[in-house]
Specification:
Blueprint (H helix, E strand, L loop, with lengths): L1 E10 H4 L2 H14 L3 E17 L2 E13 L4 H10 L3 E8 L2 H5 L3
Antiparallel strand pairs: 1-3, 1-4, 2-3
Length: about 100
C-alpha cells in the first residue's frame, strides 16, 4: 500500500463536531480498504473566497495508506460528498513513505 497526503476542507457545520468530521474521513478511507496513519486538524478557518456560499471551513490533513489501484476511487468518493468543499490527494514525500516500514 502506498502512502498519500489527504488535505480537505469540510463545511463549517460538519467540522464543528470534530468526532463526526474525523469519522466521515475514516469512512471514506475505509471504503477503499485504506487506513489513516496520521491526523493534523487545523480547525475552522476563513476561506480565501466563498465556496457554495460558505465563508469558512474545517481544515484537516491526513496521511493515509491506500492500495494504489484504489486511489481513483477515493478521489471519486471525495468528489461526490457534499460535505467536502475542497480536497487534495497527493503521494506522500519519501520521508513519510519510509517511516513505519
Amino acid at each position: 500500500m502506498k502512502k498519500y497526503e489527504f488535505a480537505l476542507v469540510l463545511q463549517e457545520s460538519t467540522g464543528k463536531d470534530e468526532t463526526k468530521a474525523n469519522k466521515l474521513v475514516a469512512d471514506l478511507v475505509s471504503q477503499v480498504k485504506g487506513k489513516i496513519i496520521e491526523t493534523k486538524v487545523m480547525g475552522i478557518r476563513p476561506l480565501a473566497y466563498p465556496i457554495n456560499k460558505q465563508t469558512s471551513g474545517w481544515y484537516a490533513f491526513y496521511v493515509v495508506s491506500v492500495p494504489e489501484e484504489e486511489i481513483t476511487q477515493l478521489n471519486q468518493l471525495a468528489e461526490i460528498d457534499e460535505k467536502i468543499l475542497r480536497y487534495l490527494i497527493v503521494r506522500a514525500p519519501r520521508e513519510i513513505e519510509k517511516r513505519d516500514k
